Amino acid sequence: MPSSSHYIFYLTPATVCLPVHWVLHELAPHGVTFEPRLVDFSSKAQRDPSYLALNPLGRVPVLVMDNQPISECAAILLLLSERHPAANLAPTPTSPIDPTVRDWFYADTDGDPEGAKWVKSMAEKRMSDGFEVLNNQLEGNEYLVGNSATAADYLAVCLARYSRVFTNPGLEWENVRALVNRMIQKPTWEEVNRLEGITGTWPQA
């Protein structure tokens, strides 16, 4: 059992923070509570010394657990899954989520602007390749791992949402779309979208 089930969650709405935010709400029935703290990119809050002390790269999300800051979305999801096994959110160690997807989110703000277009192009290709792997993994299965949703499924849905601006978005793969439609029926999906100010209809009917 974790020494604490209360966390401090640093986030920027409608970013890669979304799957962590979603899973934290899913963990509420298991006694998990958290304090959200907004990191406002428009005011360069991610470059404030107090935030850089938590994450020297100035990126989101950051989850503080037992006074220890943890960064990187996939790492946070894995740790939450391990700390709260009753929620059955543990992903497979061989999850096909490609870590280079982070290039898509940070190339413009933290990378070389002249190289951002190339980085995004490469990230899109890698994500598209990843969706093909996901689609194959989901053939004949409702979820990526086992018979219930794990953290890998929450992350996959959010990556599919991020890819909506791609030439070949994740929803073009039939099994990925079926997973998305299944997962967004969870009440927590609507709640997290409301809290983050995410509007519009996704996926489109």
Q: Your description of this structure?
A:
44% of the residues lie in helices and 10% in strands. The protein is α+β, with helices and mostly antiparallel strands and 205 residues long. The chain has 2 domains: 6-87, Glutaredoxin; 99-186, Glutathione S-transferase Yfyf (Class Pi), Chain A, domain 2. A 4-stranded mixed β-sheet has the order 2-1-3-4, covered by helices on one side. Helix 1 links the parallel strand 1 and strand 2. Helix 4 (102-110) runs antiparallel to helix 5 (113-138) and helix 6 crosses helix 7 (174-183). The chain is globular and about 45 Å long. Residues 79-205 form the GST C-terminal domain.
Task: Give the SSE map.
Layout: E1 6-11, H1 18-26, E2 33-38, H2 49-52, E3 62-65, E4 68-71, H3 73-83, H4 102-110, H5 113-138, H6 151-162, H7 174-183, H8 187-195
Parallel strand pairs: 1-2
Antiparallel strand pairs: 1-3, 3-4
Helix pairs in contact: 1-3, 1-6, 4-5, 5-7, 6-7
Family: Belongs to the GST superfamily.
InterPro entries: Glutathione-S-Trfase_C-like, Glutathione-S-Trfase_C_sf, Glutathione_S-Trfase_N, GST_C, Thioredoxin-like_sf
Protein name: GST N-terminal domain-containing protein
